[in-house]
Structure formats: structure tokens, C-alpha cells
Amino acid sequence: MKTPKNALEIVFITGMSGSGKSVALHALEDAGFYCVDNLPPELLLAFVDLQTQQAASHRIAIAVDVRSAKSLPALPAVLTGLQERGIAFKLVFLEASDETLVHRYSETRRLHPLSNPKNNDQRLAVQDAIALERELLAEVRERAHIIDTGFIKATQLQSIVKNLVNSNPQTAVPTTTLTVVFESFAFKRGVPLDADYVFDVRMLPNPHYEPQLKALTGRDQPVIDYLLASPEVLDMQTQISQFVKNWLPALQSDHRSYVTVAIGCTGGQHRSVYLVEQLAKAFKTDWPVLVRHREL
Questions:
Q1: Is the pLDDT assigned to residue 190 strictly greater than 60?
Q2: Of the candidates 153, 157, 173, which has an alpha carbon nearest to the alpha carbon of residue 165?
């Protein structure tokens, strides 16, 4: 389904402070979006109306976060207002673990926005500020597509964001369309925070122990042939596929915009990558699909 040529394409970038929102906004600017950083929620509808009237830019990216802490509770109602006007948008939430965020603040020596007395009654320790931030953003997070930035580089985040906004050319994906994200990962580096469903495939035959396959990945034909020869791998693929297929209609009926299916093995190079690629290939004929390989 296409929207009119001049329809607005809006991407909201939000999430935890220190999770990479500036990187994401720069990626969208490179992709041709008119970017606005830290626009207070109470000004969003007026800003959208202005852009519509002036036709200044049809691709808009807006960062909203706890720097507007006192007005942040208004954001869910604003998003509902956009939906009622029939304006399609994507809401992207950047996430990272507490440990990662504390480490990043320690490295940069920057002050957390909620540690600033202007945004709070008193200066908070970083960990307390992060806990408060999670509480303030909880409702927005529930409505968003989540990207865990804890184990990815800035260049990877830029690619993920660009792929996300370009997953349906010409327009943002309407909020009634469910996009399925298949993501591979290594358990040794932790489960992705953005995962809705997690499947453990570490019990499957491991190409890592085959000298000629160790340096390859699940996208290489020799590894594919090795895994295809195993009935257990095919059984796992069939069962995951059936589970996801059974529940996608219900998830869409629940007004979900995205669902992330994470598949993990020991190193995130072979088995999980192979299964993600195969599942994405099977589902892309019926659903919008995105693929991520966290460890590649």
C-alpha cells in the first residue's frame, strides 16, 4: 500500500540517554530527513501541521527524550493524535543495559540529563538517573521498535536505522502493518534487550568445530550445506517457523508494529545466522521482514 506522493514520513527517535540517539539522527540526516533534536512533545502536533502546510520537507526525523522530562508524559497522547489524523510514523527506541550506559557515561564524563537539577529536584547518581529514565520512558517503549545498541558499533547502528526507515520505500510503514525482525546473536555476549522471542539453538551441530567451516558464517554455502544435512536443524527451523507463523496474526491484531525474533547460538556466527537467513527468506513473501546479525 502506498501513501500519496507528498505524504509526511515521520520517524521518532527516542530511548535511553547514552544509547546512540545522536548517531541515529545523523544517519537519518544522511538519508535525506529533516532532523529536529529534542523537540518538546507539546510542540509536536503544531510542528507537523506547519510542515504539512509549508510542504517544506516530507521526510522528518524527531528526537524526543528525557531532556524534556517534565513534558514527556504528553508524548503517548501526541502519538495517538497523529494516528487519529491518519499520519503514519515509525517510533524507534534505542536501548542498552544499565552496565553499558554507566560505562559510556564514565568514559565520556558527561552528566546524565536527569542528574541535572534543572530537570529534577536534586542531582541524582547515574544509576538512579537511569532507573528513573526507564520509568519515564516505559509507556513509550511499549509502542516502539526497540534496537539494542549495547554490542554494536556506531556504523552498525547507522546501517540498522537506514534499513529500518527504508524497509517500505516511499513511505513509513503504517502502524497497522507488522514488521518481523529476525536477529542472530551469541549467548556468550548476552541476550538482546530488543528481543520479543528468544530461541536457543546451541544444541544443534556446530560448524565451529569443523576446521574448514570455522572461519565462515551461516551465510556461506559450505556452512549451509553442513547444516542442511542435519535433521535436527531442519526440525528446529520448522518448529520456530510454525510458532512465529501461528502468532503473527494475533500480534498484528494487538496493534504491534514490530516483533523481534532472536535466535542465539554460542558464537553468533554459524547456526543462528543460518536460521535467521532461512526464516527471513520464508517470511518475506507475506510480511515486511528485517534481518540483523549482531555479531557479524
A1: yes
A2: 173
What are the tens digits of pLDDT across the range 125-144?
788 888 888 888 888 888 88
Residue 93: which H helix or E strand, with range? Answer: strand 89-95
The identity of residue 99, as a single letter, is E
Among 78, 39, 33, which Cα is nearest to 56's?
A: 33
> Do the bridges between strand 9-15 and strand 89-95 make them parallel or antiparallel, or are there none, so unpaired?
parallel
Which neighbouring-strand residues pair with 263? 184, 199
Distance CA 260, CA 276 (A): 11
pTM metric for this prediction: 0.71
Cα–Cα dist 246/280, whole Å: 16
Nearest-Å Rg of the Cα atoms of the chain is 20
| Signed CA dihedral, 139, 143, 144, 148: sign only | positive
